[in-house]
From TrEMBL:
<protein>
    <submittedName>
        <fullName>Enoyl-CoA hydratase/isomerase family protein</fullName>
    </submittedName>
</protein>
<dbReference type="Pfam" id="PF00378">
    <property type="entry name" value="ECH_1"/>
</dbReference>
<dbReference type="InterPro" id="IPR029045">
    <property type="entry name" value="ClpP/crotonase-like_dom_sf"/>
</dbReference>
<dbReference type="InterPro" id="IPR001753">
    <property type="entry name" value="Enoyl-CoA_hydra/iso"/>
</dbReference>
């Protein structure tokens, strides 16, 4: 079997633990290439019985996954091709999260930096997430772009934090610190940054070393919920907004003002609030 070659991921495996490092400079946007490669990597691992745990981290200490590429419409041919290979009842963004959510292995996110929009949806789709208390941040930025989360975020949030807090997250579009996210149930726990690597490594190794059948039995007993109806509603809500000319102008203004650059992404909320017409 030919080993896939990735341009946005580094994939390795040892002792029952696969490690996927996200690496898409300058700020790790979730673009068409990364979505395609994530689907390829997860599909390949799905059939690998030697792997029991998958740990996701980032090559960039500031940005785990910035968000979906705000210029993704410029790659419409690639996007259509990716959509053609997605399940019929999911959009291309939801397809990534649902593949992750239904992965047979235990999936763990190690969040040292920021995850917004599609990046936050990715974090919430994983089985577990652990974050650095001093440096991690997570948020659904979409409302400031004139849209709503469209990659599973509304459904994953409601499942994790409840409807009231999901509405808070979506409609404030704030960047939440790790300790608040943990208190909400959005992530498992916040840890001191200098303890994050060791803690996640220990959890991953311990799970991978469990007796045969335990991981599979646990995931059968605690299956991912069927979110089909909610994901359809989410896609309809997202599609209605993204088609508006005002939304396209807002996204374009955000890109002109520095979105998807390291400087702009450090306070993307402030940048996008400044782009909203008053």
């Amino acid at each position: 079997m030919t080993t896939p070659v990735y341009s946005t991921l580094h994939v390795s495996s040892a002792d029952g633990v696969a490690r996927i490092v996200l690496d898409n400079p300058p700020v790790n946007v979730l673009d068409v290439t990364m979505m395609r490669e994530l689907r390829t990597a997860l599909d390949a691992l799905r059939g690998d019985s030697s792997v029991r745990v998958i740990v996701f981290s980032s090559a960039d200490p500031e940005f785990f996954l910035a968000h979906v590429d705000m210029g993704i419409a410029e790659r419409m041919d690639d996007l259509r091709q990716l959509a053609a290979s997605a399940p019929a009842d999911l959009n291309v963004f939801q397809a990534v999260g649902e593949l992750l959510r239904h992965q047979p292995q235990v999936t763990i996110v190690k969040l040292a930096g920021k995850a917004r929009g599609g990046g936050a949806e990715f974090v919430a789709a994983a089985d577990m997430a652990f974050a650095a208390a001093e440096t991690a941040g997570i948020g659904q930025i979409e409302a400031l772009m004139g849209i709503v989360p469209g990659g599973g975020g509304t459904q994953y949030l409601r499942d994790r934090v409840g409807r009231n807090r999901a509405l808070e997250v979506v409609l404030t579009a704030d960047l939440f610190d790790a300790e608040t996210a943990a208190s909400y149930g959005w992530i498992n726990r916040a840890l001191p940054a200098d303890q994050l690597d060791a803690y996640v490594d220990r959890v991953a190794r311990d799970i991978a070393a469990l007796p045969d059948g335990v991981v599979e039995a646990a995931k059968r007993a605690l299956p991912a919920d069927d979110l089909t109806d909610g994901l359809r509603r989410e896609d309809e809500a997202w599609a209605t907004q993204i088609a508006l000319p005002a939304v396209q102008r807002l996204i374009a203004q955000g890109l002109r003002d520095g979105a998807q650059t390291p400087a702009g992404e450090r306070d993307l909320e402030g940048l996008m609030r400044g782009a909203v017409p008053r």
